[in-house]
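The following record pairs a protein chain with its ligand, pyridoxal-5'-phosphate.
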Amino acid sequence: MNIKQIEDEYFMHTYKRGDLVVKETKNQFIWDENGRKYLDFFAGISVCNVGHCNEAVIKAAKKQLDSFSHVSNLYYAPPQIKLGEELVKRTFPGARVFLSNSGAEANECAIKIARKWGFLNPSKEGNRYEIICFFNSFHGRTLTTLSATGQDKFHKFFKPLQEKFVFAEINNMDSVKKLANNRTVAIMIEPVQGEGGIIPSDETFLKELRAFCDDNNFLLIFDEIQCGMGRTGKLYAFENYGIKPDIVTLAKSLANGLPLGASIAGEKCAGTFLCGDHGSTFGGNPVSCAAALAVLNIINSEFLNNSLKIAEYLRIKLENLKDKYSVIKCVRGLGLMIGMDLKINGKDIVNYCMDKGLIINCTNDTVLRLLPPLIITKKDVDFAVKILEGALKWQLTK
Ligand SMILES: *Cc1c(COP(=O)(O)O)cnc(C)c1O
């Protein structure tokens, strides 16, 4: 049996995999089992932001693997402690961090902090525990993060869900205000929705959310698992908006492909968790943390500015495509987090691009999602746009 047949026979069919058996990767490229080269404009769902097999990251991880890969969180692992310091310093003063293994865990931790904080800071009616989330959001696949996810298609078979998550519309402050009550403890949002179709928040909306949280003593939680780590041209997407959350979560590209999640709580709730409130056996794995330190070392202002320049170059070319092909409804996003909303399902276009050597993704049926490694060049953009245009032309002739 070949690899695809083995997968088909032995795995639960939870993924619709693209027709690509990976042999190796480097920077912005992937090679398949037949040695064919692909330009990667997806980066493993915004995971390999500093490029596949980044040399500095690999070197740091290998060095750590040679000295120790696990001691348990009952002792001190220096790479983990140093990463925590670096993350807090680059996030906000007075913050504290909890390290886990994945995005869902990072959000789960943020939700638990909010629940305990609501217990410690009750309203006249008692405990506060309700969290306002948003339609179209995605916060993970554990039952609690699924319950915070505002998309029915993920809920269907898994009810009853966790209680006390309610949903407002992004960029609609009235819809948020209507849901707030004496039990509300927090508002949780992706500053740029990812799985939901690359939908950025408006600046006025996020600023109003911040003010609303301050006025009512709610925590503001930003899920930056997809839009953080330089994806939007800043380390955090929220830096584009001139406001800060009370808790921010990271995962995906934090360790550039090794599993790692982080929940960073600002001054207001940094001291909420005490001994025994939370924990994880693997959380903050030393090898992942050594890799993450190397990643943060790469993501400096020069690196980010270069990614913004290339994002601008790509954006102009995509807007040109939109002017030429009426099947494109709109191009939106921030930095190198870009969505092209189509009037048709994008599946065939993704397959066409793969066939021509370009890896992109489609989310929410109609949105072509581009999340290239932040190191792509103009040459890569030219190559990608040429293939995309080919796909659009081909679509017209179908
Ligand atoms: C991917 C993602 C998650 C879940 O992360 P996992 O590591 O798959 O658990 C949560 N929130 C957002 C915004 C994501 O993009």
